[in-house]
UniProtKB/TrEMBL annotation:
InterPro entries: Aldolase/citrate-lyase_domain, Citrate_lyase_beta/mcl1/mcl2, Pyrv/PenolPyrv_kinase-like_dom, Pyrv_kinase-like_dom_sf
Cofactor: Mg(2+)
Domain of life assignment: Bacteria
Example GO molecular function: magnesium ion binding
Protein name according to UniProt: (3S)-malyl-CoA thioesterase
Organism: Cereibacter ovatus
Residues that, per the record, bind substrate: R70, E122
Keyword hit for Magnesium: yes
Record bears the keyword Chaperone: no
Listed transmembrane segments: none
Residues in HpcH/HpaI aldolase/citrate lyase domain copies: 9-216
Length: 285
């Protein structure tokens, strides 16, 4: 399914084994949901979670929220059967964990036709191979797995995420070079609103489309931070108007609020307006 115009400000993980959470998510303000069969599900719950999720996707109404199923790795005893279970289902996307190479994407592509694939970017090798992974023709999105990445790197949590910056940047570059959606990692302290807001702002300023979340209490902040603000929308409109006026006068540069506006800034301004429109359309649907 084409979902480029869809917002991905808030992407909520739900353990596939949690019936109450699966039901509750039908009314939550998430742009997309990751139905997890991987790390949020205990080993002896794996088969039950897969069956429950399959049944839930057939019967529940998640409205316009994008339905993403995170399967277990193809090197586990569950991975291939997970993928097979969602062939021809209502899953909009299959999310592959711990992708380290384009071959990891191809292994899932071989099992399920047509459905777009997303990659969890969370291994050291995955960071080094981000460009070849992003170039895979079936891949339409990336999700940062910052917990696994920190584990692999041996890094400590810091509010500025210094140790993760190289990986975040490499994946962002790869995603943008190939026109993919890319969503930032989770903020584990789900009761810490200020910390979440700061980390969302960092991800937004870097260029991520949104943030993955683990609790409904995190939705509002992510939706707010990753939406264009009223001031940004106003500025975009004024930049476009000023630039069009400059062009009418045969000029290639306008000045708005003391700053130059050229063609490239108009591209950004139009993207801001398009994002605001996509969010409004999503809210209205
Ligand atoms: C973190 C939690 C275990 C907390 O659960 P709980 O103690 O039940 O929370 P609350 O009592 O505050 O819940 C209040 C109500 O909200 C519902 N709820 C809770 N979480 C979710 C959710 N994720 N989606 C939908 N609904 C949710 C509860 O059912 C309560 O409802 P009600 O009965 O009406 O009051 C829990 O939030 C949780 O399990 N979160 C998800 C954890 C998860 O998925 N982890 C895996 C992804 S993180 C990761 O692996 C990223 C990556 O791979 C990496 O490496 O970084
Ligand atoms: Mg992970």
């Amino acid at each position: 399914m084409a979902h480029q115009a869809h917002p991905f400000r808030s992407v909520l993980y739900i353990p596939g084994s949690k019936e109450r959470a699966l039901e509750k998510a039908q009314g939550l303000a998430a742009d997309a949901i990751i139905f997890d069969l991987e790390d949020a599900v205990a080993h002896d719950e794996k088969i039950h979670a897969r069956d429950l999720l399959k049944k839930t996707l057939e019967t529940a109404d998640y409205g316009p929220r994008i339905r993403i199923v995170r399967v277990n790795g193809m090197d586990t005893e569950w991975g291939r059967d997970d993928v097979a279970a969602f062939v021809g289902s209502k899953a909009d996307v299959i999310l592959i964990p711990k992708v380290s190479s384009a071959a990891d994407v191809q292994a899932v592509a071989d099992l399920i036709p047509d459905v777009p694939l997303w990659a969890m970017m969370e291994t050291a090798l995955g960071m080094l191979n981000a460009a070849e992974i992003a170039a895979h023709p079936r891949l339409t999105g990336m999700v940062m797995g910052t917990n696994d990445l920190a584990k692999e790197l041996g890094s400590r949590f810091r509010p500025d995420r210094l140790a993760l910056q190289t990986g975040l940047g490499l994946c962002l570059l790869a995603a943008r070079a190939h026109g993919l959606t890319i969503v930032d990692g989770v903020y584990n302290a789900f009761k810490d609103e200020d910390g979440l807001r700061a980390e969302c702002a960092q991800g937004r300023d870097m260029g991520f489309d949104g943030k993955t979340l683990i609790h409904p209490a995190q939705l509002e902040i992510a939706n707010e931070v990753f939406s264009p603000s009223a001031a940004e929308i106003d500025l975009a409109n004024r930049q476009i108007a000023a630039f069009e006026e400059a062009e009418r006068q045969g000029l290639g540069v306008a000045v708005v609020d003391g700053k130059i506006v050229e063609n490239l800034h108009i591209v950004t301004a139009r993207q801001t307006l398009a994002k605001a429109e996509a969010i409004a359309a999503f809210r209205a649907s």
